[in-house]
Amino acid sequence: MGLLILLAILATPFVEIATFIWVGAEFGILPTLAAIVLTAFVGIAIVRWQGLGLVRQSREMMARGEVPARHMAEGMLLALAGLLLLIPGFVTDAIGFALLTPPLRHGLYTLLQ
Fold it and tell me: pLDDT tens digit string along 52-100?
């Protein structure tokens, strides 16, 4: 598993560069750069909105004496989504936006338990 993660990290810049070249050739440089900036701003706004909701729900659970383990894990996945959305690139943006969907986060939490 660790080797797979290492290979993914090492391959990411090459995949992103290839995607930039392909998208830039299809749409032009300015629309490509605008899309990268727009996805970062929109993604971070969504992360902030969902993150604040998770914090509120976690506080309510702690006030009832419950441990918000799932909420904490989803918060870490949201942080990962935010990081991926800040990294310039279409592939990392796609993965980041996918992590913004609650069913995927819940499924990952269940899988990693």
Answer: 888 888 888 888 988 888 888 888 898 999 889 988 899 999 999 999 9
Question: Could you write out the three-class secondary structure of 25-83?
Answer: HHHCHHHHHHHHHHHHHHHHHHHHHHHHHHHHHHHHHHHCCCCCHHHHHHHHHHHHHHH
Rounded Cα distance between 21 and 35, Å, is: 14
- Name the CA dihedral angle for 83, 87, 91, 96, rounded to a multiple of 10 degrees: 20
Name residue 78's amino acid.
L
Residues 101-111: pLDDT tens digits?
999 999 998 98
Nearest to 89 by CA among 1, 13, 22: 13
Contact 86, 80 (CB under 8 A): no
